[in-house]
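> example.struct
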């Protein structure tokens, strides 16, 4: 690549291939966005990208790439979007420790990329104050073991969290219900046990409308953050804006038990609640029926406003 003035390169969803190292990124000093999603490139993650100091967004997902994330990625001081999903990476814990130090990162998608997983709750992460600007964290199908990582409790800007299809054990921690902006959470297909925590019935962004000063609804992804049919039940044109993803809690296909708490009716802004394939017992709270009726009324009002 000798087009030294290029600012954006978008080559997604083609049949391009070959060794990615044949692409000379070092000459693209002005490059801010690189999208090679859905091609057939092979080889290790290209370290030449680290010389593109203007890079803000990288999407390499769904290629035949491999390797590991190196600390040199921290030289990209403006990096806000990184999607390396569906490739073959090693050392999940090491990658998270490095990326925690990327202060500008707002979207991180690593789903389905790690050959072997890890417990993400060791001291090097728990004591770290990274990811303070992170809005989206995708760690589905990463082989994660152990409990839900406690360092997530510090991510006050987090809005979307996917930890589904791992080997996460233990109960859902109460602190998860205190994250002020979290509204879309997928924990399904794990080994989670215990009762549904009442604290999770008070997620601020699902109980009441946040003050305008705290709303980040119109944060746009530099590239679509969720791209494959397998993990994306929403139309592709909705993938660019955070607010178009449905407010959702999915804890299906786990080992949870006990009764469904009546407090769940407080989640007035919730669109999708999936509790299926667990061991819940007792009656369905009438508050859920009230919640469904409330949602229907909201949808009627929205249709009236559009007509």
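> example.seq
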């Amino acid at each position: 690549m000798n087009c030294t003035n290029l600012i954006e390169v978008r080559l997604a969803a083609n049949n391009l291939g070959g060794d990615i190292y044949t692409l000379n990124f070092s000459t693209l000093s002005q490059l801010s966005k690189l999208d090679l999603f859905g091609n057939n490139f092979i080889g290790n993650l290209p370290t030449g990208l680290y010389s593109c100091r203007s890079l803000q967004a990288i999407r390499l997902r769904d290629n035949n790439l491999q390797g590991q994330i190196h600390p040199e990625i921290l030289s990209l001081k403006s990096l806000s979007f990184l999607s390396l999903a569906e490739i073959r990476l090693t050392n999940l814990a090491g990658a998270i420790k490095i990326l925690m130090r990327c202060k500008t990162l707002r979207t991180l998608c690593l789903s389905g990329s790690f050959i072997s997983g890890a417990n993400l709750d060791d001291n090097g992460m728990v004591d770290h104050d990274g990811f303070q600007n992170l809005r989206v964290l995708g760690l589905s199908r990463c082989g994660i073991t152990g409990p839900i990582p406690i360092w997530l409790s510090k991510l006050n800007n987090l809005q979307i969290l996917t930890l589904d299809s791992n080997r996460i054990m233990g109960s859902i921690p109460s602190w998860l219900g205190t994250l002020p902006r979290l509204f879309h959470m997928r924990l399904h297909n794990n080994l989670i046990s215990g009762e549904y925590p009442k604290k999770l019935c008070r997620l601020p962004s699902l109980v009441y409308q946040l003050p305008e000063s705290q709303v980040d609804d119109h944060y746009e992804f530099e590239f679509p953050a969720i791209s494959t049919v397998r993990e994306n039940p929403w139309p592709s044109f909705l993938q660019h804006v955070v607010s178009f993803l449905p407010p959702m809690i999915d804890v299906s296909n786990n080992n949870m038990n006990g009764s469904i708490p009546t407090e769940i009716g407080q989640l007035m802004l919730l669109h999708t609640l999936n509790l299926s394939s667990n061991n819940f017992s007792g009656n369905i709270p009438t508050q859920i029926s009230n919640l469904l009726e409330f949602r229907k009324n909201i949808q009627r009002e929205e249709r009236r406003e559009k007509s």
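> remarks
Residues 1-54+61-67 form one domain.
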